[in-house]
Amino acid sequence: MTLRFALLRYVAIFNCFLLSATSQNLPNFDQVVAAKHDLWGEAAMHQTNGASYEFFQALLPPPRYVNADFHFYPIVLSAPNAKVKARLISNGSGINLNAGTRSWHEVGTPVTFRVGPDEFRFGDILNRVQHPTLAEGYLPIAEIRYSHDWNMFKEEAFASVDPLLASNGVVFVKFSLAHGSNDFITAQFDSKQLKFSQGKVTDDQGQLLAWFDKSWNWDRNAAHAKINTTNFATLALFTKPLATNSSSSSPLDYSAQRQKCADTWKQILAQGMNVETPEPLVNHAWKNLIIQDFTITKGDNLYYSAGNQYEKMYGAETSDAAVPLMGWGYEADMRRFLPVILNLVDKRLTNHFAGHKLDTLCRFYWQTRDIEFIKSLRPRWQIELDWILNSRGGEYGLLPKDNYCTDIEQPVYSFSSNAKCWAALRDLVPVLEAIGDHNTAKRVAEIAPKYKQDILAALEKNIRYETQPPFIPVALFYDEGLHDPITETRIGSYWDLVANYVIGSRIFAGSERETWVPKYLETHGGLCMGLTRSAATNHTFWTGKHRTNPLYGKRYIIDTLRRDDPERALVSFYGMLAHGMTRNTFIGAEGTSLQPLDEGGRFFYCPPNTASNGQWLWTLRNLLVQDFDTNEDGTPDTLRLLFATPKRWLEDGKTIKIERAPTAFGPVSISAQSKLSQGEVLVQVDLPSRNQPDKTLLRIRVPAGWKVLSAQAETRTFQADDTGAIDISSLKGSQTLRFQVTAN
Fold first, then answer.
1. Is the pTM of the predicted complex or chain greater than 0.85?
2. Secondary structure of residue 7 in the 3-state scheme
3. Mean local confidence (pLDDT), 244-258
4. Helix 490-505 × helix 516-523 angle, to 10°
5. How far apart are CA 581 and CA 571, in angstroms?
6. Residue 3 has pLDDT above 50, yes or no
7. CATH number of 638-743
8. Residue 209 zone, left/alpha/beta (φ > 0; ψ -120 to 50; rest)
9. Where are the alpha helices (DSSP H) in 306-413?
10. Collapsing DSSP states into helix, strand and coil, what is residue 413?
């Protein structure tokens, strides 16, 4: 194929996806990536009732391809917390196929699936393969369909949760026809010197690699079976070979294994908060993201990813995966993860890690109020506290230089890291008081204001006022330069990520500078569809310069919610669901290309990703339940309920339900049932009983054309503000509130 022909083909394909934008009179792709404002995001906010999944879905094809020989993204298959993990290629082409590139680890014996008497590889023709779907919309039981010779092949796969089989990463696979006549399926092993006997395939050492049901026969180093719409073929593949004397009975009760898999994951989900929204896709997504996290976890290690070079832990990213899980109710698991997080060391990012670890510790305390556990971890977190307290100095009173970020190994005085470490001191004071260490609390309380003063004094010498809003650099006394547009340079792309930690520190809270960084992101090319942008600076597998790194936008999103700008938060929420994740399977990554490779999808890097999962889970949780420290003294004081829900969720007849939502004040449950046709929204709420917030607010966001007037609880009447919020700080326990609404 000539370069000219390839370019023409790409343009033709891509223009198909721009038809949707054109039909809505939206900016086209070139306009969007060249703009300094988030054109699609802003257009979404101007839709009736704001941003939606449907608005974003058709603008681009989804993430789908990776830089590996198997090309289509892998789906990690594993029992909860298991150490051995398999991968299913998402076009159905095989299990544990070799990647062939340095970014990926090779796992198990590759098994390729082929269809028909011509043994054509499953999923190889793009327009014949469907996106995978999950059982019940969220369970880790994947189904992939592929059309060949007028027949529709159906492949289903899942990981065994049986302890013996899970320790060997056993994957069960079932083939049948969704429609059509008799046809053939082939399982081809990429291994020599195999032996097939009594349905078992063993390697040259006699270890078990696979177990087949009676539908299969062996020929030419492959297993073959005839299937139709009523007759299916099943097999079990061992990612880690099993000594044949370890098991004397066949594990191939496919139905029983499948049921056990479903039951196990449902039991795990039942341990945490339950959320039911009127959007099934949202309900499926949060459930599967939690399942993904426990699929990626190995023992007590909540890794960044699995099966690739990101199968490791990072101080910031691992915390950003663990905290949302805890916020969903998995406090027992956080007790496993937190000691490991506190032990993480990276001498290139000592300050960055220190601030993040202490922030995570404080969040754990406020949710659990577990004083004894905090005390038991003191030898681990005291190291970070001592570093911050004792390492400041020099001309500027800042911490010593550390790297700009992981990928930019330039030591700098980092405004981001210093702001994070100051915030950690602020937040740690009430925790130290709670555990009875009043002397250290007093010392930290005395140091923190001076530290903040030094940080802001150093920053003042580096702010660039020639832009609006003024530019806040990360590298102090380094001549970082303006980033305008932000992603024009490599360091600008990383500023877009790292600046989020500045936002999260709240170091500018209450001042005119509070919105400078988020507004700079919004007006200088830092966002697309609400997702944090970056840019490729070299020509590798990326199809174009423009990409997103959405997981690093978590603090920007929460800040929009804290400042009560729900419409922008919803852009990020739905932008992520539509284009930061795969269709139906909700798999995200650290980086995702904006330009499609073809009509089927876009490249993304080393999926899956627990921090990506955490970003979306934390956003959804804070759309529903917010527990904020509005006094900026380290102690949460305000509970806000249903403050940023999509307005469509309370269309007539719809219900929002949250059960057992953990907060800094104790669990809360709430149900809102829309009865617009009857002029009301009925709310049931169980308020926290462990600790009383200083302020509790409840908002009902009704669809366009409706307005909330007031609410009644027993004999009391609460007047609603213009946003539909009421102050229920005086209420306790279980309450029923009837919101009166009227059509505008």
1. yes
2. helix
3. 74
4. 150
5. 15
6. no
7. 2.60.40
8. alpha
9. 315-327, 331-343, 350-368, 371-376, 378-391
10. strand
